[in-house]
């Protein structure tokens, strides 16, 4: 059985806010062919989109990034504020995981690549109106890999050698110098030597300060929750 739209009120109203006129019109034609779908407005930018949403609140808003008169997800943020109950499907050329995560953080429940929007938009609409989330299939692996990959060291941490990084990682987990020496098969004096270099490079004076820098780089969300 083909997937269907959840149209509790009989119809699903949609507004499209996208800078590319050809894509905007193509998506309107595709969605208008779907049973129970009514396209309300086609907008080309931030201010036009805001005016339309102030006048009419659609059930679903298709929002493109980088509007003609705004940056990145400015329109998505505005749409979430003006129509908090609407399902938002983000449109973008980018498969960058950070851009994807940013869209979801700002309220999107769907993410469709412009290059495949004509194919994907109906599935995305079905998913979000049935209480789910959706992204272009090619993005799933990109997102999984970004989550699986360890965070790269930044700032002073990037100046540490591989061995110094290993020593600091163990110390930050609560290991004592003797335990670090045992796990890394080093002498205690060698561990002390590495620690001195770590302190110098991170410009700190204690294990606690060094650990805070390490954890703030690799686990910022956890620190925020525990603060």
Overview of the molecule:
By secondary structure, the protein is an alpha/beta fold. It has eleven helices and six strands. Strand 3 (60-64), helix 3 and strand 4 (87-92) form a beta-alpha-beta unit. Helix 1 packs across helix 5, helix 7 packs across helix 10 (207-218) and helix 8 crosses helix 9. The longest helix has 15 residues, at 188-202. 30% of the residues are buried. The model is unreliable at 219-227 (pLDDT under 50).
Please provide a brief summary of the model.
The protein is built from eleven helices and six strands. The chain is α/β, with parallel strands linked by helices.
Shape: elongated
What is the name of the CATH class of the largest domain? Answer: Alpha Beta
Most strands sheet: 6 strands, parallel
Seen as an oligomer or otherwise, the chain set is single chain
Query: What order do the SSEs take from the amino end to the carboxyl end, as H and E?
Result: EHEHEHEHEHEHHHHHH
SS element count, helices: 11
* Name of the CATH homologous superfamily of the largest domain: Response regulator
C-alpha Rg, in Å?
24 Å
Low-confidence stretches: 219-227
Can you tell me the CATH topology of the largest domain? Rossmann fold
Mean pLDDT: 86
Q: Please give the domain count.
A: 2
Strand content: 5-15%
Total E-strand runs = 6
Structural class: alpha/beta
């Amino acid at each position: 059985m083909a997937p269907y739209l959840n149209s509790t009120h009989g119809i699903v109203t949609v507004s499209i806010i996208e800078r590319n006129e050809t894509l905007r019109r193509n998506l309107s034609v595709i969605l208008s062919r779907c049973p129970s779908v009514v396209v309300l407005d086609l907008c080309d930018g931030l201010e036009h989109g805001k005016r339309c949403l102030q006048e009419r609140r659609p059930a679903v808003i298709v929002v493109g990034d980088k509007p003609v008169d705004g940056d990145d997800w400015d329109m998505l943020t505005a749409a979430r504020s003006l129509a908090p109950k609407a399902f938002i499907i983000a449109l973008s050329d980018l498969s960058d995981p950070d851009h994807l995560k940013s869209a979801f953080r700002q309220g999107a429940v769907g993410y469709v690549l412009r290059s495949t929007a004509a194919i994907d938009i109906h599935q995305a609409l079905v998913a979000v109106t049935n209480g789910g989330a959706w992204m272009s299939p090619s993005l799933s692996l990109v997102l999984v890999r970004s989550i699986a990959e360890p965070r790269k060291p930044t700032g002073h941490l990037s100046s540490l050698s591989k061995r110094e990084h290993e020593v600091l990682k163990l110390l930050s987990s609560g290991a004592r110098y003797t335990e670090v020496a045992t796990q890394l098969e080093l002498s205690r004096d060698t561990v002390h030597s590495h620690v001195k270099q770590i302190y110098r490079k991170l410009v700190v004076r204690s294990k606690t300060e060094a650990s805070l820098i390490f954890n703030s780089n690799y686990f910022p969300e956890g620190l925020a929750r525990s603060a």
